Amino acid sequence: MTTGHKQDTPALDTPTAPSPSLEQVLSEIGRRGKLALRLGVVKGTLVLTSAVTLTNLAAAIFGPAIAQASINEGSDWAQDEGTRDEGKVHYYGESWSHTETTGQTCGERGCYGGTTTTTAWVKIRVQPQSGADLDAKRVGVVYRDYYGNQATAVGSYFSTHADGYEEWHVPVVMSGYQTVMAFTAWYQDGTGQSPTWYDDNMGELHVVTMNGHQAIRRSYATDVSIDDTGVHGSIVATVTDIDYDKDIRLVYTTDNWSTVEELSIGEDELNAWQWVSDSGNSETWQLELELPGSFDHIEYALVYRHGVVNGADEYEYWDNNYGQNYRVELSTES
């Protein structure tokens, strides 16, 4: 089996993603359907004709801004042209990042201006293929930049492990404002005879967070109290909208963790997370808390899980008040 490598990989022109198919747009309609119904914009019967473009179709249902977002959240070029095969290429689940600012003007009152960029290095596992063209072999990721545009980054060979798999490192340079990157890992053996193999986490995409970003965080609008009748109030959370499918939970105890309870997304008006609004790539969720009984305190944390369908790898994010949890005591607020 050929295991040689090229240390320096030439730049790769980003393949042009094909226009989204009707099936992809209809899939996005399914994904966004609940949002549309919440907003009350889906009414009547949808009639498709050859004169209706995909963008106009999405715009007619969701409006121009959401139409663009819907199509941008569709499949990427690797998914469109390739074959899913986690045996050939797989994200190790490891990454690291570095943020720097260049071109600042500094004076007695401090520094201002300049350009801030974040570079995330993503570790990819590759299964070497016999007969691969080492001059044309490529490993990389496809992701969305801060503005929602599809972009491609190409990596370089790092090492070969004892099990024969190769480790590649893919540097992704992004705007310093970007704190979350969802991506597909891909591999081409360079022969032109094999497909592009990819790992998209079973369609849910892999995720890297940077700069200490919290994918879920409690809002200052939260207001919880305890009185003689029980626990009452409202918990508000800001959640990064990585994907439509998500699991949000309140994990709490009223007996110092001797027992643990969880409240999840649901349609009940009380004790269930409810979607409130979208803002850019974030969502606001709210839980109206009503726990009747006699308690002297409640202690809780918030958890958000991505990759909760299709047998995907799960990514879990916590807001536990920096390891202290949130605590409310009888007749006090926190």
**CATH superfamily grouping of the largest domain:** Carbohydrate binding type-21 domain
One letter per element, helices H and strands E, the order comes to: HHHHEEEEEEEEEEEEEEEEEEEEEE
**Fraction of residues in helices?**
10-25%
As for the CATH topology of the largest domain, it is Immunoglobulin-like
- How many domains make up the coordinates? 3
Please count the helical segments.
4
Shape: globular
Largest sheet: 6 strands, mixed
| N-end to C-end Cα span | 62 Å
CATH class descriptor name of the largest domain: Mainly Beta
The Rg value, from CA coordinates, equals: 23 Å
How much of the residues is beta strand, in percent? 35-45%
Structural class: mainly beta
Rounded mean pLDDT is 82
Q: Would you identify the regions where 5 or more consecutive residues have pLDDT less than 50?
A: 1-72
Number of strands: 22
CATH architecture label of the largest domain: Sandwich
Question: What does this protein look like?
Answer:
There is one protein chain. Helix content is 12%, strand content 43%. It is mainly beta and 334 residues long. The strands form 5 sheets. Strands 1, 6, 7, 10, 11 and 12 form a 6-stranded mixed beta sheet that branches. A hairpin with a 2-residue loop joins β3 (105-107) and β4. The longest helix is centred in the N-terminal third of the chain and has 18 residues, at 22-39.
Write the layout of secondary structure elements.
Blueprint: H1 22-39, H2 54-62, H3 64-72, H4 77-81, E1 83-84, E2 89-102, E3 105-107, E4 110-112, E5 115-126, E6 138-144, E7 150-154, E8 156-160, E9 166-175, E10 180-188, E11 197-199, E12 206-209, E13 216-218, E14 223-227, E15 230-240, E16 246-253, E17 261-263, E18 273-279, E19 282-292, E20 297-306, E21 315-319, E22 326-329
Parallel strand pairs: 1-11
Antiparallel strand pairs: 2-5, 3-4, 5-9, 6-7, 6-10, 8-9, 10-11, 10-12, 13-15, 14-15, 15-19, 16-17, 16-20, 18-19, 20-21, 20-22
